[in-house]
Amino acid sequence: MPPSRSASRLSVTFDDDHSVADAGLALVAVLSEKLGLEELAQELVDVHPLPGWRVATLVHAMVAGASFIDDADVLRSGSTAEVLGHRVMAPSTLGTFLRRFSFGHVRQLDKLAEAPLTGAWSAGAGPGENYWDAGGTESLSVRLRRDSCSSSSSLQGEIGST
Length: 162
Hints:
This protein has 162 residues and is mainly α. The protein is 43% helix and 10% strand.
């Protein structure tokens, strides 16, 4: 991906107090890039062509609330692809991609899901008081920590201005 399309170089400004539509995609785009989701999918998923873009599109569509393949079309509106930092694939190509999956390909997705989580954990997103700084721009900072105060620990995120 060219550096100019990097999600971590994203600068967000709002000229309307009510602009919040799919704003959570910016956080997910930065985390996806820092954890190497697209590259890992390209390496681990053996359903071609372009498994990296297709997996990234599916993940980002689910974060945006997609329940069906056609719902992924929401990512193709406006400049969303620039925010996500990858080419957003059309729903028709996503359906073709998913229909090619066998049980073995699903196991590849299991491995793909494990790799970024392991990377985040080893980078400091695990238990303890230390935060993992996933980076961002000068105006967007993403920090994750493990909540150790509850019996069912969960990852908590913070977005703050720097």
